[in-house]
Specification:
The protein is an alpha/beta fold. It is built from nine helices and seven strands; from the N terminus they run ααβαβαβαβαβαβααβ. β1, α3 and β2 form a beta-alpha-beta unit. The longest helix is centred in the first third of the chain and has 68 residues. It is globular, with a radius of gyration of 29 Å. It is an enzyme of class 2 (transferase). Its main location: Golgi.
Amino acid sequence: MDLVSLISETVIQLTGDGVVQELGVIWQHTRELLIVPILKFSVFICLTMSVMLFIERVYMGVVILFVKLSGRKPENRYKWAELKDDVETANSNYPMVLVQIPMYNEKEVYQLSIGAACALSWPSSRLIIQVLDDSTNPDIKDLVEIECQMWASKGINIKYEIRSNRNGYKAGALKEGLKHAYVETCDFVAIFDADFQPDPDFLCQSIPYFVHNPDIGLVQARWKFVNANECWMTRVQEMSLNYHFRVEQEVGSSTYAFFGFNGTAGVWRIDAIKEAGGWKDRTTVEDMDLAVRASLMGWKFVYIGDLKV
């Protein structure tokens, strides 16, 4: 090897070692000045949120224990009285109720949901069933329409509504459903997803809260599950959702605090929806979005744990 080659290799080696050392110094300074503080701050935030979550759980545990021991049921906190039939006034003391059933290709359950809605114990002259069919399968749309026609032939005031598009998805369907002229006669709207079947006395149990308490904007019922014992996963899911209903929503309702609408198995005062700005399709959590806006407008919400759908 000649002298020139040896000198070149030596220079390259020294230069390479210098670059590695320089990079090591830069990384050490970056870690000390940037990465470590960010990680410490992140750990602090996580610990703070964990403490807040723990405090929330303890608070809810104490409140729900007090609620159960004291028997603070909704009918004890709000005025509630059963509505009586009045043949002389053609049951005009019953408010007009709209029942909305949004569905999308619900071949397996459409008959169950429509049948349950049509079987609600409420004067037929004071009830409108509205099926909002966004199905894209023409065969299923035909089946749903035939089902609605069958119930209409039995004297049920049922409306089959479709759209030319699916803008806004469920929120868009609910929003469009409220635009029909016949809805102007309604005071309240009950919403049931296609896989929910209310018991016949659902309206009789929920509507009186609105009638006797004009500041109530939402009555939310509890969900029940037909396949809860199918496997260990469904049992875990049931426990998780039961905590949401039996603790979180029970505590919120009992302390007159905010809790969200669950998107189904609930009744809204239509004036509350209008005052809050109506359904918005800007989000996929349209139920919580509407609940937040209605709560900010001063409307109160009631959760009825004994009313299951």
